[in-house]
């Protein structure tokens, strides 16, 4: 059994990217570091973990959303990774996943930079007010340029960025990142699958540049954090924790965007990315309540992310695994146990939820009690389709209506 989950230490996040920016590779690396993946798969030979749909493996693009749960032990965090599709034809599905996640990692290719579809997805994420971190990937590629892509994120997307790292080296000589908060250089040894991260002082020739960017970083954070601004102006030494808290406030409350960089293929920058997800993106308990309609009176109702409130969840995906047809639920309020009768408030039909599962990279785990804020796969739904609201029978609510283009997708 997995250890009990503290929802404060949970992050519901999605990786959002233009096709080919490296979403699959990054997901793969993330799961690897999280210790979920025993056998590494490479995108190019069609054996990656998230892309378990044969059709998808064939195409090499992520066309189906799936939620995978893993633990990021260094920060004692749980992450529900909601897979968002990365192809231009599937923006409706991207939109649906944006609805259920609390934070996003937006990946840009360090070569191609911001592309037309990245703009669409970025603005969709703005619409749903999803706090984001940017990861400028593929910096080992010829022609990749962190600074150019960073400027595009600012100019084309109108993002207020907080660069937290600088790349060390370019193209084939790209070997690590400078962390502007800790003032350290992190190198990622090619060793056994590039696992090893070492920490060293910033190289002499980059010290001045790093200090300049650090000042800029602190000034930007200060715009969002008055207390930090005061300490900064008084010339106080700011601790790493204090700066991180400022970045967190800036990201969650002021929609500023921390920017990190790396090469997921070469395992560069992936561990710091996981730390950033834990440090800067919100827990489900920090997001505003969801709004819905009382189906009888049509009055507006709010559901807060609290176990004590009546159960309410959005069915955001129906997907078969090798055993069952699973309905993926984002629980917004209340709790859910196996063998529970719930109401599909959207269709006014009762449903029996027989079992709950948490989907790990290579197995699934039974869940006896799912809490407000969590995402689980459930078995037993008969008459429900993607987009329906499931609730406590006595307290029905229909969440803000979202029009989804497709209905039940069954792979069985
Ligand atoms: P997705 O379409 O966004 O899921 O992108 P993939 O992860 O499938 O990557 C697209 C291609 O770019 C594949 O051939 C990857 O091997 C390659 N790729 C991904 N990340 C990197 C990287 O950091 N550096 C380099 N050189 N190639 C990468």
UniProtKB/TrEMBL annotation:
Coiled coil listed as a keyword:
yes
Q: State where the protein is found.
A: Cytoplasm
- What keywords appear on the UniProt entry? Coiled coil, Cytoplasm, Elongation factor, GTP-binding, Nucleotide-binding, Protein biosynthesis
User: Binding residues for GTP, per the UniProt record?
Assistant: 17-24, 83-87, 137-140
- Write out the coiled-coil annotation as residue ranges: 214-241
- Which GO molecular function annotation, any one, does this entry have? GTPase activity
Q: Name one GO cellular component term.
A: cytoplasm
Residues in domain Tr-type G?
8-285
Q: One biological-process term from Gene Ontology?
A: ribosome disassembly
Q: What is its main location?
A: cytoplasm
Reported function: Catalyzes the GTP-dependent ribosomal translocation step during translation elongation. During this step, the ribosome changes from the pre-translocational (PRE) to the post-translocational (POST) state as the newly formed A-site-bound peptidyl-tRNA and P-site-bound deacylated tRNA move to the P and E sites, respectively. Catalyzes the coordinated movement of the two tRNA molecules, the mRNA and conformational changes in the ribosome.
Family assignment from sequence similarity: Belongs to the TRAFAC class translation factor GTPase superfamily. Classic translation factor GTPase family. EF-G/EF-2 subfamily.
Its recorded name reads Elongation factor G
State the gene name recorded for this protein: fusA_3
